[in-house]
Design goal:
Elements lengths: L4 E2 L5 H8 L18 E5 L14 E14 L7 H7 L2 H14 L4 E4 L8 H14 L6 E10 L18 E7 L18 H7 L6 E5 L21 E5 L6 H8 L7 E4 L14 E6 L4 H9 L3 E4 L4 E7 L2 E2 L3 E2 L4 E10 L4 E8 L2 E6 L5 E9 L5 E9 L4 E4 L2 E3 L12 E2 L3 E9 L2 E3 L3 E10 L7 E8 L5 E8 L15 E9 L7 E11 L8 E2 L11 E9 L1
Parallel strand pairs: 3-4, 4-5, 8-9, 14-21, 24-31
Antiparallel strand pairs: 1-18, 2-3, 3-10, 5-6, 6-7, 10-11, 11-20, 12-13, 12-15, 15-18, 16-17, 16-19, 19-20, 19-21, 22-23, 22-30, 23-25, 25-28, 26-27, 26-29, 29-31
Length: about 550
């Protein structure tokens, strides 16, 4: 075990950090909300036109606790569920979260296929009634329960219903919150669900119990625009191992949350709590934090966990670093901290046994140019645990909002990955692009990827169908996300220096490019997106 920095042994830097902490309700009771107001330097998620930027901005946040996954009934049949459902049930779940657990937020996530339209309206009305800025937030939400048993609720029943997996769908507000049922043929696949949601500024989806033997999750359906988080702990157990193996190891950028998934309307029982790091207790502030992965998960809401990489908060993506300074600060109310583990790529690299209620650490890791992810796992003496969202380092996979850049009103550019970012002339550059269909396409479009110098001379390029021709765009469904992988051979004799990687889309028969607009409505020069910058070495 390495020796960490305990509360009684702090540097001047840590003393200043401690002075920036203000306790709120954390000392009042277990599971209470926002305890620590902390100022951090956070790296904002870059857009494709500014990818690779390492600029930071000051932000302050509180820690807010709540349950994002709770049901009000154990019934799974629509007719009997309708007989039991009442406004009082929904009110009781909200009241339990606010007045018994002293939580800051809750999402009542009854199964969508059980909800009739009037039930959904009641759920939203109660959420609005309980939401009071600075006091408590209730999100309109439902569970999209797409596994084999959902086929029994289709009309007619479907024995072949695929095991897509379960997702809780959370909305920013009740004005843009459509109910989408997994047994409705219009929304019975993940692609159809995503295509029918109002956009990731207004909706976010969270997969859960990803390796459940009866209700498994299909990891190939991950949509980087909507699936920003994954539930790592609930009443059944922790799914950390599965998330490592099938999520993070596959380079998915997913923060973590906890949810009880109980069916008795008692949020937070018996385990599964989300901590949201947000500047204010409002729907907008909390939803923005969820979308940006500013979260951690606990088996019980009695652990404060701050985790930073080079001053950036957990959930951040850091680019272009040969080393990173990782730091954390942990407070526990219910029990002493028995174990703190720092993990890289799912493997423990450092651990401490504080045996105190407060613990801090700081450690520098040398990385080279390889990409890695780091996170922290905390275990208390009573067995309760907490998991930070990861910090990704040297990862240039940049998820963006699904409508910007917008290409011709039919395509959205979601994310990209360019690697390596340093290579000699003559070597191969690997580029991965994620696209989403915004509308029907009757043409088969191609992508172009160029590596250009300061004088716009092209030193490497590849033109190919958006998924290399095996799945042309005319076959895409609205809302569907498709990954394209490309390889560009750098020309021999390419001079050392900085180069820009650009991309766009065109119709191969005419060469006409799809127009590209940014979020402000400005058309990009040459209908070309700047993806990243690379360096050609000697």
């Amino acid at each position: 075990m390495k020796k960490g920095i305990l509360a009684s042994n702090t540097s001047g830097r840590e003393d200043r950090a401690r002075q920036s902490i203000t306790r709120r309700r954390f000392l009042q009771t277990l599971g209470t909300g926002a305890g620590l107001l902390l100022t951090a330097r956070c790296a904002p998620t870059a857009t494709p036109t500014s990818a690779g930027s390492t600029s930071t901005k000051e932000t302050s946040y509180n820690v807010y606790f709540g349950d994002l996954h709770v049901h009000t009934s154990r019934i799974h049949q629509a007719d009997t569920f309708a007989e039991e459902f009442s406004r009082e049930q929904i009110e009781a779940a909200n009241s339990y979260a606010r007045d018994v657990m002293y939580h800051d937020f809750v999402s009542v996530t009854n199964h969508g296929y059980l909800l009739e339209d009037w039930m959904w309206e009641v759920t939203k009305e109660v959420a609005d009634e309980f939401t009071q800025d600075g006091v408590f937030t209730s999100f309109p939400a439902f569970e999209w329960t797409a596994s084999h048993p959902c086929g029994r609720h289709c009309d007619p029943p479907r024995q072949d219903y695929p095991a897509w997996g379960h997702r809780c769908v959370h909305f920013r507000d009740t004005n843009a919150s459509p109910l989408r049922r997994c047994n409705d043929p219009n929304y019975d696949t993940p692609m159809k669900l995503f295509g029918a949601l109002p956009g990731p500024d207004f909706a976010t989806t969270i997969p859960h119990h990803t390796s459940h033997p009866v209700h498994p999750f299909d990891w190939s359906t991950i949509n980087p625009a909507y699936d920003r988080l994954v539930e790592i702990v609930q009443f059944r157990d922790s799914y950390e191992t599965d998330i490592i193996q099938n999520g993070w190891a596959s380079e998915q950028i997913l923060g973590v949350v906890g949810g009880s998934d109980n069916h008795n309307g008692r949020p937070g029982k018996p385990r599964g709590i989300t901590a949201i790091l947000a500047p204010a207790l409002t729907r907008d502030a909390l939803f923005d934090a969820l979308r940006d992965r500013r979260t951690y998960a606990t088996s019980h809401g009695d652990i404060i966990l701050h985790f930073f990489g080079d001053g950036a908060i957990q959930g951040s993506i850091l680019t272009s670093r040969s080393s990173v300074t990782l730091g954390g600060e942990i407070d526990s109310k219910s029990e002493t901290i028995s174990l703190v583990e720092l993990l890289i790529d799912g493997q423990v690299i450092t651990s401490w046994q504080p045996n105190q209620a407060t613990f801090r650490f700081e450690e520098r890791q040398w990385l080279g140019e390889e990409q890695h992810y780091f996170y922290v796992r905390v275990t208390l003496k009573n067995g309760h645990q907490a998991w930070s969202s990861p910090i990704w380092v040297n990862n240039h996979f940049i998820p963006t909002a699904p409508s910007w850049p917008n290409l011709g009103q039919v395509l959205a550019f979601l994310a990209h990955d360019v690697r390596p970012r340093r290579l000699p002339a003559g070597e191969t550059l690997h580029v991965t692009l994620f696209w989403q269909a915004l509308g029907d396409m009757d043409r088969d479009y191609s992508a172009f990827i160029h590596v250009v110098g300061d004088d716009d001379r092209i030193w490497a390029q590849q033109d190919a169908m958006l998924q290399h021709g095996d799945y042309p765009t005319s076959s895409w469904n609205i809302g569907q996300t498709v990954k394209g992988e490309y390889e560009l051979q750098l020309a021999q004799g390419t001079p050392p220096g900085e180069y820009t990687v650009k991309a766009g889309v065109y119709y191969w028969e005419t060469g006409e490019r799809l127009p590209v607009w940014d979020e402000s409505g400005q058309r990009l020069p040459g209908d070309t997106m700047v993806l990243d910058h690379i360096r050609i070495t000697d």
